[in-house]
Write a structure and sequence with these properties.
- The complex is a heterodimer of chains A (1006) and B (459).
- Chain A is α/β, with parallel strands linked by helices.
- Helix content of chain A is 27%, strand content 18%.
- In chain A, strand 4 and strand 5 form a beta hairpin.
- Chain A is globular, with a radius of gyration of 32 Å.
- The radius of gyration of chain B is 23 Å and the shape is globular.
- The chains are: A alpha/beta (1006), B mainly alpha (459).
- Chains A and B meet through strand 27, helix 27, helix 28 and strand 31 of A and helix 5 and helix 10 of B.
Chain lengths: 1006, 459
Amino acid sequence: MNDSSEKLDLAAVRAKLQGAHGREYWRSLEDLAATPEFQELMEREFPRQSIGWSEDEDPVKGRRNFLKLMSASLALAGLSACTRQPTEFITPYIRQPEDLIPGRPLFYATSTTLNGVATGVLAESHEGRPTKIEGNPEHAASLGACSAFSQASVLGLYDPDRMTTVNYAGETRSWGMFFGALREALTAQKSKNGAGIRILTETITSPTMADQFKRIRQMYPGLKWHQWEPAGPHGARAGAQMAFGQPVNTYYDFSAANVIVSLDSDFLASGPASLRYARQFAAKRRVRGDKTEMNRLYVVEPMPTPTGSKADHRLALRAADIEVFAGALSTAIGVGKGPRSGDNNDVYKWLDPIGKDLASNKGASLIIAGECQPPSVHAFAHAMNAALGNVGKTVFYTDPIEAEPVDQLASLLDLVKDLDAGQVDLLLILGGNPAYNAPVELGLRDRFAKARVAAHLSLYDNETSRACQWRLPEAHFLEAWGDARGFDGSVALQQPLIQPLYGGKAASEVLQMLTDHPEMASRDIVRAYWAGQHSGADFETWWRRSLHDGFIANSALPVKTPALHGESIVAPARAPKLNGLEVIFRPDPAVYDGRFANNGWLQEFPRPITKITWDNAAILSPATAHQLGLDSANRPSGVNIVGKMLELTYQGRTLRAPAWIQPGHADGAITLHLGYGRTRAGRSGTGIGFNAFGLRTGQAMWHDTGLQAKALSDSYEFATPSIDHTLDPRRHIFRAADIEDYRKDPNFAHEGTEDPPPGLTIYPEWKYPGYAWGMAIDLTACMGCGACVVACQAENNIAVVGKDQVRRGRSMQWLRVDSYYSGDPANPGIVNQPVPCMQCENAPCELVCPVQATNHSSEGLNDMVYNRCVGTRYCSNNCPYKVRRFNFYLFSDYETPSLKLLNNPDVTVRSRGVMEKCTYCVQRINAAKIDSEKEGRKVRDGEIQTACQATCPTEAIIFGNVNDPESRVSKMKAEKLNYGMLAELNTRPRTTYLAELRNPNSGIED
Amino acid sequence: MPETPELLERKPHEDIAPGYTFGSVTDQIASVVLTKRTPFFWFASFGVGFSLLLLLLLSMALLFGKGVGIWGIRTPVMWGFAITNFVWWIGIGHAGTLISAILLLLNQRWRNSINRFAEAMTLFAVACAGMFPLLHMGRPWLFFWLFPYPNTMGVQPQFRSPLVWDVFAVSTYATVSALFWFVGLVPDLGTLRDRTQNKVGRLIYGVLSLGWRGSAKHWSIYETASLLLAGLATPLVLSVHTVVSFDFTIAIVPGWHSTFFPPYFVAGAIYSGFAMVLVLAIPLRKVYGLEGLITDRHLENSAKVMLATGLIVAYSYIMELFGAWFGGDVYEWGAFWHRMAGPYAQQYWMLVTCNIILPQALWIRKIRTNPVTLFIWSMIVLVGMWLERFVIIVSSLAQDFVTSSWGIFSPTRWDWFTFFGTVGLFLFLFFIFVRLLPMISIFEVRTLLPQAKAKEEQG
């Protein structure tokens, strides 16, 4: 019999080795191997558990026992055979792709477009499937940040409702059959010079597609190309025409602007360069240590936006009044000769102080007009920027980035005329959804039927596809090659990460079918074009370099200084007389013009400020609501917001929509967000919200007066994860002050509260010999755009729960952005506060879990052990910050095949009955730690970026090692502005905030 | 059965009506079980209980099939009806042990006629209560992880969590109560064994009576055992609800985080427990003609206990409010302000009405001694105590620290079904007990007879 103490297992060998030190280790492996213990260890597979073979080896656990156990195993093996195991194939790589190590993601540079304008991104690929989008730090429009739309685009790729086959009049066809039909139609057009061909696209900036159009037009001179982008910069295009007599592209440099006036421009959160602008704006506003200079932002807008929430002075004006304001401001700084007073005193009250502020910052100021504003406002902005000497310093002009800058409405009207005249034989609609989102009076949905052959290339079988015989599946941007210009004209390349899931084709491939080389793949099309453009010697190297970077270096359009046609800019005498209410159309912050309607992440993304999900609303001010007889007075806090239904009548068309009373909205106006009321969007997007396109005409694309609203008796319950927005200042949650007050008292953030001294708990202090992770969030930088929320959802496999469950208070997002109002409801201060898990040092959650499912890690995280969680939910009750989320049902989708590809393999997909919460992206922490350990070093500061931090355009969220006094996060936490939310509870949160600072103009009395 | 009509004359301040003999007491109580004629009242009550029990099974099937999402719980109100019901049922369970153990030790002999069914009520209430912690779990099939058992993972429950304390407190309480109840039943089971005409009944009662022969030795052992168990159970009466109140006081939630919850909860538990005793006793004694055994004195004494504990509860409410105001903590005061004027104001004022204002009528002797009014008042107290738990749990959670996360709980039909389902389970078990076991302790009631006293005095 072997005494077990004589045996040696691996642990014991290791212990023995550890006990030795220096050269006494062991002289050679043979030395070590010579010990009988080690020999024994080598002979047995499972040293402790194994059973001796012969009787004398172990009389108790001898051969008999071995046989007994064997027979039991065999019997049990028979049992397990009762269930049929699913067949699984494990296919190894025959040739492993270069650089691919299973388990390690690869990142590829590509680009995404919105309204045709590109933003560079990095797509994360796990064994060939894209799972996450990050910003491309080298791309000028991204600088490493990423918008909510881009974040959610991976879900769009795997959307099970995408169009999966070529379809002709309801029957499945192949691309070959479509191609045959197309050639047939083209042959007929040969004789007519292509006069019957119409191509309708969204805005196109792609140089490759511009080239394709050029060549196609050479073949078919009669062909017409129309573009329609429902939420495109129509006003900016016409405004440039008005100011300069030519189309120009405008972009800005906020890093050189001390005073900014936004004329209804949400430049921080929407528009093709918003990520860049937000970063520059925030950097110019950052107060650290002795640097207490801040830029100043004036915002004039009807509907509160993230930009408006950052304003030092925000003026809520109806959209039409903004034109008056722009005219009056131009007079105030000596550009125009318009009136400086009028009916609405609000318009004129701040002109002098703003004018003075601008005048004292010549060359370092910026006036930016919103994309939804009429041409004259843009023209005023151009003129004022010129007068203030900002051109070339904060404002830059280039040639237009669009391949063909046309008046898109006129272009669409032209198409309608031709359709009515029966001149359209072949209509190719590449992308977009004009049947849904074109001006309502055009009735495009029915008119498409007048084309002899109509084909629609689209990601989804949508309203427009319905109106066309041929429905063609489009390749997602992660499935196809392409290129597009960014905000400054630089060309970003788009490279696919995956074969088209459903055999879709890119728009360029369909266009190519019209040429002499109809069967070229998108890669060859783009490559061939750039091979023709590249003048240098080594194209291959240059091309690879460009693909690697994601953009073509030095391709930005040259800056120019167009001459201003000053005389054409005339200030309107006064605002148009109000006839009823003003109707304002805006793209939705989440589903945009409806193109993202089937994206669950975006649907469930709480809209900035309102926090509405899964819906749009008729948004109006408290005073206007009062006039309409909608008083929401007696809603107890915590109760879901219920809006009365309104019947909106505008130009003879009516629409029923629920009223949403929004503090800070301009009086006398109703804002309608576009993109809802889809009838063919997919399972998530169909039939929710109401269709504001139903009121939107070509004459008034963004706003008009003449809206009648009538309150109906029925009401509507909204789905908002956050219901209450008023904050008792005695609750130590959000801290803010003016910069002057900060200069006087830098410690204001700690007033009225007492941070409890350490040692108030009976439990011993935690010790962190290695890392101690922490986070600091700069509230001065955060503008509440919410990109972090979607980034977190994408990174951490967070489930979508649906509208009904959101109403029931069960949304699962780990990170939320709270918005609070202060002051007068007519024009309140609006603040935003992202709230991830605080990872408290004295965590109330850890204490109450009966099964130790939430624990303190050796690096200070509150780890959640999903496997151990039994779902008593006590931790959530005891969390003062309410950051824990519970799987009330099986919210995760385990069924849909395409969605299985979406999940981040490094993060557990949570099942029913389990609590979950922010982990500080622990999978990223561990990946970086493994890397650093392999290289024998510490994790570098900035090496780990949490998903929210990585995507944040303003760098408001900083994560790092608080044990390292030199780390960015430690330095932020050392600021006097740093405070812990509810710190008086002695939870000692690891996530801390830097109090918000504003820089108001002392000449303005609010 | 009472042999003469005089027996029915009510004379308060008597533990037992005059005219009973040892034999008649035994006859009357045993006949409820041994009779072949089951009254309609029994069928009706049992039927209601059984129907509701089926509803509970349906609710549980759906609950286990789909998850706790079928209830109205949400972020931030993660505990709703389930924990409310748990605390309410546990509270009700207190009266039985109080009556049987504490009053035994205090030599309050009037308890002898109500202790048996009060103990049964305790057991069944604890059974109902015990279901909820399991039902409310997100993954109820892993409930055993709350117990410390040796396992390969080497993981143990977290002993800092009040939920683990609950596991021990409630399971200990259930065990001791069941033992106490069963030990107290043994002599009566012997009686039933001897009296039943039914062979199966004789066998079952015979087995259960553990060979009881009523010898002096038996009685001596019995007395020792029951005294010991009473001694064991007495601290439990106080400890169980104290531990249950720790679920709240240990937490940081304003409206929960309070040091006087233990006595407050114990008082509330006894308050609701006595209300339940009365709710059960009043119809039972009427239907089975037991007014001679459960006399008006019992009702009045119970009412007095209710009045006393009700005043402790009232004092607690006032002190709770005073503390919140006097402490000046914005969150604590906010919690109470929302309780009084927020979305749950209606429930709050209803509970104040049911628990404080209306029970003051018990000062009036007529209400205290009239079975009908007393029954109504007891129901009011039961409702009030349920509302109290609901308001404490739900309103505190709905509006705590961070304004943006506030949200109110509104119950779904499955919340109600589960609650009424356990009421059904309770009735089901209780009426089975009434039919199969002597609901009043025969031998203990016999000690109340003057004849027994006389012997004692002589001896």
